[in-house]
Amino acid sequence: MAEDKDIFVNDEQHKVLARGIDLDLSSCQTSTILGDKTYVVGGSDDKSSLSIQIFDNSNEKWIIPTVLGTKPSQCQAQSAVLVNKDRIFILLKDFKPDDCIWFLEVDTQYVREQKKILETEVVAWSKGAKGDRPMPVVISGPSGVGKGTLISELMKEFPSTFGFSVSHTTRAPRDNEKEGVHYHFTERQAMGKAIQEGKFLEYASVHGNLYGTSLEAVEVVADAGKRCILDIDVQGAKSIRAKSLEAIFIFICPPSFPELERRLRARGTETEEQVQKRLQNATKELEQGRSSGVFDHILTNEVLEDCYKSLKKHLGLDGGMDVACHTSPKIARLPLDKLISETSDKFLIHRGGSERGKASENSFVLDLSSLKGGAPGRTRGFNIYTVKNSL
Ligand SMILES: Nc1ncnc2c1ncn2[C@@H]1O[C@H](COP(=O)(O)OP(=O)(O)OP(=O)(O)O)[C@@H](O)[C@H]1O
Ligand SMILES: Nc1nc2c(ncn2[C@@H]2O[C@H](COP(=O)(O)O)[C@@H](O)[C@H]2O)c(=O)[nH]1
Fold first, then answer.
1. Helix, strand, or coil here: 60?
2. ipTM for the assembly
3. What region holds the Guanylate kinase-like domain (predicted)?
4. Domains in the chain, ordered, with CATH?
5. Ligand 1: residues within 6 Å at CB?
6. Which atom number of ligand 2 is nearest to the Cα of residue 171?
């Protein structure tokens, strides 16, 4: 008989006392066993985040692991259960469909790699997000070539299709730039710390400042059902390519070096010293962009309208449709006497007040059979169905 994997919100029965560990049920502490280790989540005095402790049953010692990834903002876990033998599925107490499903990775490839690098016990949070991620578009090219101009055109014409990945940077804002719109302007120390915590998909030192794409910046766009556009330098594009992230990589060239210089100066946003630095870097970037094999398409931005047309063609937008990628909710019909416990990788979630064994309008099936992704980004590829009683 298949393992009973039902999860019942407000059902205290699943919070068994694990091998003699006393759990604080009043603060919704949960425990999950994998091999010799018992992962205890929640129950700290610090109400701002869920605490994580590991009890090593082989030597009966407690371990405080290094916790990577973006943590849930809520601090009370309601239920926890091991899935895929490498991560703990955690349902948070307040049932908000967009923010209640989290995964604490304890033995995934990412966690194993980080354990080796950091030489310590590591766990990593990954937020559960519904739907698949539409393929991102990475746009690179030397400073002043017109990347930002082309991206603005795309966002203007296709506001429901595209969302811009707002990077972090340590450079100072220009007069027209707004925090959270053009960049997240940040201090070097804070950005360095966030990089150490695994919060960045890529980062690079560009023209003397640090720039980086946070995982959150990309996921926020995907969560809105939009296709993410990244405006990043060649080093950043290379590092994303190396991570095998599925994306379209486009490199923009100027028609000539003097024209690049003219555009950069005409923009009037840089000091003479900065212009010189950006032009020096442009020579190397142009070489790398053309020859690195990173880019799927290389476009020349001579006449803006022509280059924009060509960009749209490469992105399959010749038809001019502006469509967001939302998926419609599904409804599962289940016989009440079988429920979901006979099917592996599916979980039945009752909202507060429902009785065990009785599906109702308040019941949901969480289907984790095709999980994708994970820390340090979101975990995708699952579905939530409303359950209709078919008896
Ligand atoms: N095809 C074009 N012909 C003439 N001017 C252009 C063209 N494309 C863009 N520009 C102008 O060139 C300047 C630089 O463009 P933009 O700021 O978009 O460059 P960028 O590649 O995003 O630079 P950076 O990497 O520094 O952010 C802007 O003033 C823009 O209006
Ligand atoms: N590797 C990354 N490069 C980035 C990112 N965001 C922007 N950039 C690149 O920096 C230069 C300079 O930008 P500017 O706004 O100061 O003119 C430009 O080439 C951008 O493509 C990032 O997150 N990562």
1. coil
2. 0.98
3. 134-316
4. 6-132+327-388 (no CATH), 137-314 (3.40.50.300)
5. 141, 143-149, 263, 266-267, 301, 303-304
6. 16
